[in-house]
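Q&A log
Question type: sequence-to-structure
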Amino acid sequence: MNELNLIEVLKQTTLITRFVLAVLLIFSVWSWGIILSKTLLLRKINKESETFWKIFRRGQSLSEISTASETLRFTPLVPVFNAGAELLQPPPGRHQSQGGLALRTSAAVTPATVQRALQRAAAAQLTRLENRMTFLATTASVTPFVGLFGTVWGVMTSFAGLANASATTLRAVAPGIADALVATAFGLFAAIPAVIAYNQFVYKIRNVAGQLDDLQGEMLAIAERDAL
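Response status: OK
Response body:
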């Protein structure tokens, strides 16, 4: 049994097929770069988020939490917390209330104001996390069709050549069919990792969004308690 020699198949591809393979290669390399960078980023975010919640639960004041969280540079919880803490921090000369995180807000700062600031900050952080996710979704949906185009074109070329050939044997049409199918194979090679990674990233970003919602609830509880 002869084994498939991919190098020989690629050498025999037509100009159109090579163009299709080049496009698929660009999609694949770019998507893998996104996959690796997003994987590392989300791993750091998960680790730092756990650290932040420990700091938040143990903190005695918002300023103490803010100071302890300065080294956390990747988790989106810190920017959202700081957006609320800037409004909830007491003005200079005013003391923090005793027994927890409750702080006296100024008359101009209401729970609704704090909520809007937290929502804007959370939306900005989620937008940052979702950056380049559209390209992964595009790769997952488009590359199989790009490969299919190469396959259809290759099959058409093979049968057109077969019609003009003197001997209609399998040996005569086999190279053209192999040339056509390699485009589909490369299309799936580019699409499958993108689909898997996209679904995983969506799941993890939703978890981050859930933590941001929890943090907003905690910060609003502080604002409402002080507004009483």
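Response note: The helical segments are 6-11, 15-58, 62-68, 77-88, 111-129, 133-164, 170-227.
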